[in-house]
Structures are given as C-alpha cells and as structure tokens.
C-alpha cells in the first residue's frame, strides 16, 4: 500500500479539540448531562494536511461530533481550537468569518444541493455569504477551476442536480465546499449513499485534492477499507467516546481495544480496495 503523506513535524495543530461533550435530552436532577451522551469527553488534534478518520457503529456519535465542531449543534462544554482560537466562544458574526476555514460535505448530495439551482449558482453560493473572498469578475474562472479540480467538465456549470449522477452531484458538493478555500474538510460518510461504481470517482477526487491543496480531512466512514486507504490516523468511536486513536496501520494491524478488534473482524476484504485507486502522480484528470 502506498504511504499517505505525513504531516510536517512540529507544525502546530490546525485543529485541537479538548474535552468536548454534547448530550441530548434534559439532564435529570443532580446530573450535568442529558440522558444521551452523544459526544463524551472527546479530545484530538489535526495537523495541516492530515487525514483523520472517525469510525464506529451507527449511533456512536460521529455525526454529532462533526456538527459540534462546526457549531451546527451547540456543545455542552469543551474547546475547539482552530489555529489556537476557541471557535466555540466566538460570536455568531466571528463564527461566520471562521466557518470558511472549516467546511462540511454531507452524506446525501441530493439533500444538500438545491434542486432548482444550476451548478454555477450552487458553487457560487458561498460567495454570496462571503463576498470579499473573491471578486465578482474572477468568479467564472474560479468556477471552471473548481469543476476541473473535482474532475467534472466545464459545461456541467449549466446542469441541475437531477441531470447528474450521485457521484457527480457529490463532486459538485465538494467543489462548493472548496469555494472558500477551507483548510479543513469534514466529510461525513461522503460516499456511502452512492453506488459502489461511482464511489471510486469521488474517493479519487478527494485523494487528489488532498495532495494538491494540502487539505486536512476529518473523514467519517463505515468503510474500513476506504479508511485504510485515505487516513493517516484513525479514531475509533464507541458510545460517544474515542476508545482508541492511532496511526492507521497501527490500528489495523495491532488494535488494542476490544471494540476495535470486533469492528475489524466484521469487515472482511480490507486489503482489496486499494488496488482500485491510483496515487495522484498516476492520475490523469479528464476534462
Ligand atoms: N438532534 C438529536 N436529538 C436527540 N438525540 C440525537 C440527536 N442527534 C443525534 N442524537 C443521538 O445521538 C447519538 C449519536 O448519533 P449520531 O447521529 O451522531 O451517530 P453516528 O455515529 O453519526 O451514527 P450513523 O453511523 O448512523 O450516522 C444517537 O444516540 C442519536 O440518537
Ligand atoms: Mg452519522
């Protein structure tokens, strides 16, 4: 297996999460947290250009954690330091500014793309909220470049979501997430809603983007073979907590926690998927 790019040593963490908690439901008397502790004392750091995967069974809290990082849901307590600054304490106006650095791609590209907007409009949308990022006159060229980066032909700018395959729609969602030049992409099951036949296009684009743009990813997935391919480190989440974190190969070849062992045992064929992908230097982006 080809080695993933390793983060530069001693670089300060781009993102550092400390003791994050999020519970749902009203706490009972004498309790600080509600009955469902979806994120339970989670801490980790993410370096520039690094890909951290979060794996764990359904309901373990992966999406809630992702949404808490972006303040789409409000944390109960903890810190989310982006370049040393706690984004959980920012005002809404300050958060709007910061949000351009952290973007999210959701599982279902149908739900996340407005059906009556064409791709040009969809990709431009972030610039309506952050007009100072890019001058109007430079936007058409940037749209073409973004389409090229997700391996879609330029004429796709005129298409609507229902004229595209799921894989193409998801690549449009990725292009839109890139419009503000974020440093971190949070990918919540980005290919699990797609046919296996188109998953590879999206994964290939994600790999290429990471190498070209040095993006950091938080990659949430049930697919351990993909995790092994993409991630440089893995966090195993169980009932809201990170029960094991480590370099990808260590987690896969020498899991310590019982739950990690169970997870790996239920995922046969882990070694086969990587043969379907090529590293960026071998890839030709089609237009
Ligand atoms: N808005 C909410 N209100 C109440 N409970 C919630 C809410 N969102 C999530 N939960 C609960 O929090 C826990 C974690 O859910 P979450 O969606 O984060 O899990 P997940 O790991 O993303 O699961 P999956 O793999 O199925 O996507 C679950 O018990 C869920 O029922
Ligand atoms: Mg989820």
UniProtKB/TrEMBL annotation:
Subcellular location: Cell inner membrane
CDD domains hit by this protein: ABC_NikE_OppD_transporters (cd03257)
Native source species: Chelativorans sp. (strain BNC1)
Keywords of this entry: ATP-binding, Nucleotide-binding, Plasmid, Transport
Domain of life of the native organism: Bacteria
Family statement: Belongs to the ABC transporter superfamily.
GO biological process, one term: peptide transport
One of the Pfam families matching this protein, by short name: oligo_HPY
Annotated GO CC locations: plasma membrane
Principal location class: membrane
A molecular function GO annotation: ATP binding
Entries under InterPro entries matching the protein: AAA+_ATPase, ABC_transp_ATP-bind, ABC_transporter-like_ATP-bd, ABC_transporter-like_CS, Oligopep_ABC_C, P-loop_NTPase
Protein name: ABC transporter related protein
Keyword DNA damage among UniProt keywords: no
Membrane topology summary: Peripheral membrane protein
Residue span(s) of domain ABC transporter: 15-264
